[in-house]
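Supplementary Methods. Inverse-folding protocol.

Structures were first reduced to a discrete structure-token string of length 482. This string, shown here, constituted the complete conditioning input.
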């Protein structure tokens, strides 16, 4: 009986446990489709929350790029001995190299924030005060100076070049930050003493001029101002050759006919560059720019020749030889009509060069007759040229001290004799008459001075010539009323 009673109680407790608010069964129904591992993960306590940027997949491409650019905005002092062995130097270089690879391999356009941060990083690293020229030991003054911070600057310039060249950098976005102010400060860097930096700047400026077409007029104006300041004020600049090399390719892309602005650039900016004493450092690049203008518009030959004659050196023989070389290149591109407009002043200057006491100048001027194109121009205008040139040739043949100059002079005379014998004899006759007149004039002058000397010897000046100084006048005193 007790057993029956206890069995009923147990059955009632089981029923009440199944239908009440107790805990659910351990086993899930098969319709939820979850396995035991997922149930265990959900049941386990959640890990400690971590910040989103440190999670492996939470940072975006833009966030990583900006974080690296912020690291590169730290500028180190390479002049301090204690800072050269810092591990941070190597870390910054590694980050810069990774940015170069990132920009080179990028396929999606850079966002405006990324472009802005790039330009900011370029400005912080590049726009600086140039370090002083400190060299160890006794060094030659012409020895190139190398910037100690080039360890970082080299990669920054590489990144800037890739940035400008990259197709993922949109011009509309970049123009907001690569503006006239940025370009102006970039042009100031051409005065750097480090030739490696000037080479990098040359490549960057060429790419900027090609990509940012809206900034082209400003670049031309800014470079013109650099030339003006160099020629008329400072007489010193390290990057004239590199700037001219960039503009050599720019001029070759000018459309025909040339604009008036471009012609003014030739006359006001390029031709005055012949004035400084250091013209030999950039003369090949300057000559190339000028010949590019003449090839575009041959009528500019007269302008160029007049400019050369305006700045022709008088006492610097080495510079005079360089001018003669450039003159020959210009005359090779000269047409007959333009040559005839400037033939008289041109050959007056060449005649002075023929009589130069520096034998290399005289010899270089005589070698102009070896140029076939120039020889044809001279032969067709010999009626004007030979009367100007012949006195100089005759003086060289009679009195020049150098044998090499004498031999070349005789060859040039022989060319004119074969070209037009009658004209040569007429010029010879005129030269003899002029020499006789000059000798007679000198004799009269000599006799006049001898007469004055004899008179002075017979009537010496013995009277003491002195200038009486009048006494100082007494100051005027106003009358007093008594």
């Amino acid at each position: 009986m007790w057993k029956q009673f206890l069995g009923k109680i147990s059955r009632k407790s089981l029923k009440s446990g199944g239908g009440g608010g107790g805990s659910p069964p351990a086993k899930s129904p098969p319709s939820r489709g979850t396995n035991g591992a997922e149930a265990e993960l959900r049941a386990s306590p959640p890990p400690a929350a971590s910040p989103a940027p440190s999670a492996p997949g939470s940072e975006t491409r833009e966030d990583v790029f900006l974080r690296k650019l912020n690291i590169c905005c730290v500028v180190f002092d390479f002049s301090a001995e204690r800072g050269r062995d810092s591990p941070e130097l190597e870390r910054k270089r590694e980050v810069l190299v990774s940015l170069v690879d990132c920009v080179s391999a990028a396929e999606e356009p850079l966002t405006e924030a990324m472009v802005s941060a790039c330009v900011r990083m370029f400005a912080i690293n590049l726009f600086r005060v140039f370090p002083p020229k400190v060299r160890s030991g006794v060094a030659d003054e012409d020895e190139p100076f190398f910037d100690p911070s080039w360890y970082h600057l080299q990669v920054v310039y590489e990144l800037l070049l890739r940035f400008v060249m990259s197709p993922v950098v949109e011009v509309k976005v970049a123009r907001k930050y690569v503006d006239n102010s940025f370009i102006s400060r970039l042009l100031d860097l051409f005065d750097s003493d480090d030739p490696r930096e000037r080479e990098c700047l040359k490549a960057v400026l060429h790419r900027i001029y090609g990509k940012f077409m809206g900034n082209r007029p400003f670049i031309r104006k800014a470079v013109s101002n650099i030339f003006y300041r160099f020629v008329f004020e400072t007489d010193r600049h390290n990057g004239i050759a590199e700037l001219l090399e960039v503009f050599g390719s720019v001029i070759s892309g000018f459309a025909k006919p040339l604009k008036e602005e471009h012609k003014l650039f030739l006359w006001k900016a390029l031709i005055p560059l012949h004035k400084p004493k250091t013209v030999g450092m950039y003369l090949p690049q300057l000559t190339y720019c000028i010949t590019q203008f003449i090839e575009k518009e041959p009528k500019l030959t007269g302008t160029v020749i007049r400019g050369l004659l305006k700045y022709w050196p008088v006492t610097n023989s080495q510079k005079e030889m360089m001018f003669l070389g450039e003159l020959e290149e210009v005359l090779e591109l000269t047409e007959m009509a333009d040559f005839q407009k400037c033939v008289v002043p041109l050959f007056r200057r060449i005649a002075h060069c023929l009589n130069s006491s520096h034998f290399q100048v005289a010899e270089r001027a005589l070698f102009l007759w070896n140029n076939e194109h120039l020889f044809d121009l001279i032969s067709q205008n010999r009626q004007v040229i030979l009367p100007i040139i012949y006195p100089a040739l005759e003086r060289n043949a009679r009195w020049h001290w150098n044998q090499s100059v004498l031999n070349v002079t005789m060859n040039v005379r022989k060319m004119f004799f074969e070209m037009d014998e009658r004209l040569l004899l007429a010029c010879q006759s005129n030269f003899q008459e002029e020499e006789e007149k000059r000798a007679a004039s000198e004799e009269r002058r000599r006799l006049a001075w001898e007469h004055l000397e004899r008179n002075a010897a017979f009537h010496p000046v013995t009277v003491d010539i002195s200038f009486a100084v009048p006494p100082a006048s007494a100051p005027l005193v106003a009358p007093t009323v008594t």
